[in-house]
Design brief:
Blueprint lengths: L2 H7 L5 E6 L8 H8 L9 E4 L5 E6 L5 E6 L5 H12 L2 E7 L5 H13 L4 E5 L20 H12 L17 E6 L10 H14 L3 E6 L3 H13 L6 E5 L7 H9 L5 H8 L4 H21 L4 E5 L4 H11 L1
Parallel strand pairs: 1-2, 1-10, 2-5, 5-6, 6-7, 7-8, 8-9, 9-10
Antiparallel strand pairs: 3-4
Helix pairs in contact: 5-6, 9-10, 10-11
Length: 318
């Protein structure tokens, strides 16, 4: 079922959903089951599975020169989605990214998903490779998430890259996209960032999942600004609890989000790591309760493999 169908059928009740990362290469599907098994009691309508582009490593050869090799550290997104649906009977939402794929490879991935009965996708540009200062698309690949949305929408209409295909099978993907309550770090301002988001919705995106945030007022202002611009699709808040003191520096640096002063002061003043984690959990519980009271369609948790923490939060709000 489409993600938006779940929102429509919830009768105003706030759902909960989760995002998982594929295990590092060499891991097993049991790694994912260990994360999700305890969370299934909350009846998530869908599970998001991230996709990670290739990275480059340099191996020193006997000659002394270095060989540049492209590897995927977290492969398996499509297979994980199929396994989740088979084990739990829950819809899976694979992330599709522009980076590391040509348009033809993207089309083939969509065909595989269609054959598996997966009809939800989250269309993302993806990040730049490590050590690259800006995003560089693959030859023949998409530069922007907007173009990826358009390709998916074209396939929903039976239009494939090969113009010789007549009466091609129509896919039925429900397309989600990312939103940034504090703007995407590459956008010069929030107004222009919202205009790009509006283009993705106009092109066929049916819902939005936000980047993590730690100040609910940022989310509420973002939703209001979207509505003023005619962006009327569901906007799902993405939440992640702070679990270590290190994260008050690493999260803003990596994800370009701000943290409220009260949260920072509490974490800096915490006596030990357990106290830090408790502060992070309580903060996310407060966020979750306020968002639920506001009637958000779904609370989307970035699990990062920490099932006990996510369970503690959800048990406190249900």
């Amino acid at each position: 079922m489409k993600a938006t169908d779940y929102f429509d059928r919830s009768q105003g009740n706030t759902l909960v959903s989760f995002e998982v990362l594929p295990p590092l290469k060499g891991g097993t599907m049991q790694d994912i089951f260990d994360i999700l098994d305890p969370l299934m009691e909350y009846k998530p309508p869908f599970i998001d599975v991230t996709y990670h582009r290739e990275e480059y490593i340099y191996n020193r050869r006997d000659s002394g020169y270095y060989e540049k090799i492209a590897i995927r550290k977290r492969p398996g997104t499509v297979g994980i989605c199929a396994s989740i649906m088979h084990r739990y009977g829950v819809d899976a939402v694979p992330h599709l990214i522009c980076g590391g794929f040509s348009k033809e490879e993207t089309e083939n991935a969509l065909i595989d998903l269609h054959f598996l009965g997966i009809n939800n996708v989250l269309a993302l540009r993806g990040d730049a490779r490590q050590f690259e200062t800006k995003f560089v698309p693959d030859p023949g690949g998409h530069k922007y998430a907007l173009d990826l949305v358009k390709q998916i929408k074209d396939m929903n209409g039976g239009n494939y890259l090969d113009s010789n295909i007549e009466s091609g099978a129509k896919t039925d993907f429900c397309i989600g996209v990312a939103g940034y309550p504090e703007k995407h770090f590459e956008a010069p301002n929030l107004d222009l960032d919202l205009s790009y988001l509006k283009q993705k919705v106009d092109a066929g995106a049916a819902y939005i999942v936000t980047q993590m945030f730690f100040d609910n007022s940022k989310y509420f202002s973002f939703v209001e600004a979207c509505r003023e611009r005619g962006i009327n699709v569901p906007i799902i808040p993405g939440l992640k609890p702070i679990t270590s003191k290190y994260q008050i520096n690493s999260i803003p640096r990596r994800f370009f989000v701000n943290m409220p002063d009260d949260l920072i002061k509490a974490i800096v003043g915490a006596k030990d790591k357990d106290a830090v984690k408790e502060i992070g959990v309580e903060w996310t519980i407060h966020q979750s309760k306020e968002l639920k009271e506001a009637g958000v369609p779904c609370l989307h948790y970035y699990t990062m493999g920490d099932t006990p923490t996510i369970k503690k939060i959800i048990d406190s709000i249900l």
